[in-house]
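can u pls check wat happens w/ 1-O-alpha-D-glucopyranosyl-D-fructose
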Amino acid sequence: MGSISWDRQNGFTNEPYWKDATFYQVYPASFKDSNGDGWGDLPGLISELDYLSDLGVDVIWVSPIFDSPQKDMGYDVRDYQKIYAPYGSIEDVDVLLRESHNRGMKVILDLVVNHTSQEHEWFQESRSSKDNPKRDWYIWKPPRYDADGTRIPPTNWRSYFAGPTWTFDEHTQEYYLHLYASDQPDLNWENAACRKAIYDNTMRFWLDRGVDGFRIDTVNKYSKRQDFVDAPVTDPNSPHQSAPEMWCNGPRIHEFIHEMNREVLAPYEAVSVGELSNTPDPRQVRPYVSAQAQELDMVFEFSLIRLGTGNILGPKYIYQPFPLSKMKTLTQKWQFVDGTDDAWTTVFVENHDNARAVCRFGDSSTPELWNKSAKTIALWQVTLTGTLFLYQGQEIGMTNMPSSWGIEEYKDVESTGFYEEAVQSGDPELIKKTLHGLGHLARDHSRIPFQWDASPNAGFAREGATPWMRVHDEYKSINVARQRDDPDSILSFYKKALTLRKEHRDLFVFGSFTLLDPEDESVFSYVKRDIKGHTDKMAVVTLNMSGKQQMGTDVTSILGDGARLVVSTQEGSKLVDGRPVLKPWEGRVYVNH
Ligand code: TEU
């Protein structure tokens, strides 16, 4: 668990630093390439630390940089103690830590320990024979046979990237389990020696080198139900069925996470944020993050970021349109901090597994509204309670890949898996819908190279280099260089908004959240109250999330005549009968102090 506070100006001296810190996720392959090989790298990241510091970043989360065959962009680790050569060396990590710490920033790494790469030496040993000491470090099961005598997998579970969760290994004639790609066999957390190796080999190794904590991949999938039975058939057209109840939030999960905390996280005072998918009920989330449970500091819950997405273990890429009211109620649901300090929440709308927020929750179709809606999204995020996470490029309003790009530009194992599954079905309608859904939702959208400037390759890689993913066609108009000195840019607004968040941390970071007008499909308004300081300080946030002029909420009736505008995404006008006239995609915040 992360340690208690750094310098604090407003009296919350007992709060851990990570609560009001701004985290920023770096996707190393796409951030900055220093050597012209088309892959981002650690020296590239190090060269931009001043940029991050200037933005207002407190903690950098670096997606996996470990040695890997890159079947799933490093979420398939071959060696936890080596750096993937195109990213640099272990000495570069030391420099990253030192240079970040010198600037007052911390660094967390991505801990991927639900599975390894099949090229990891543990798996090589495990698969070598049934009596190898590491056989039980992975999950092996004998085949089943159907009525015709055809060999079938031990269960009917569907994997994340389409297809079954089991792959048959000729060598020992058994199947191994993989919730993700067949290249990513699941570790067997039931085995104590395996758990110990994870703590030593992955966690202590990096904490001893000075990292400040971990973003923990797939944190609720370590404990599987041990009876390994078929899931109920919910998709009669497929042999593979959605089965999260078999392997998610399983019987021993809290025991495992508690042990991980006691053994490693707590002694090092390491900050932790776990990835908690398939857990849409706050009552199930609290046990992971309640202070008494001593498991994790924070988790990511995905209901909001998944808006528009189909069933995650089924037709994920069949796009589902959603109304603003849905976005509001989900925001409210996850603002569950109640002032007792017993559980803490996180705030985020982007990461490397989801398409760009400005395209999904804003309006990126015209340049005018692109800028305005990106700022309104920023204002929404910075005024929410919990720890804020930004994803690289969000701060300049980076957009999805152009719709004119073909399927060949999609590199992600999940995108290609779903596309192939649609093609295999032979159903032209499904192929069309899948391509449409990928165009809105694919993980690829957030993974294209970062847009630094208008030079060839967007300043991500030097001229003549071939970036591993195509650079966005719009990079000359959307980039850091263009926004850095423009007071009206999205980047400038993020800097201002992040400062505002800290200035009013009692309201925005730690305050309570009350949703107003839940049914309104154009304006998103809420009240934030200082529940920690027990003062009468309040803020009203009113955001026009539509392309038409709207009346904002009645600010005066809540805050009184002394209501003061502290920020607007556009040139603000006066209140009319206590209500602001909001231009298309305009957002404002008023306070009573
Ligand atoms: O994602 C885990 C995961 O299950 C999802 O939330 C993920 O968004 C996926 O796309 C769902 O369909 C983590 C990583 O964030 C992701 O990049 C990896 O592919 C995955 O683990 C496997 O390690």
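The first helix runs from residue 42 to 47.
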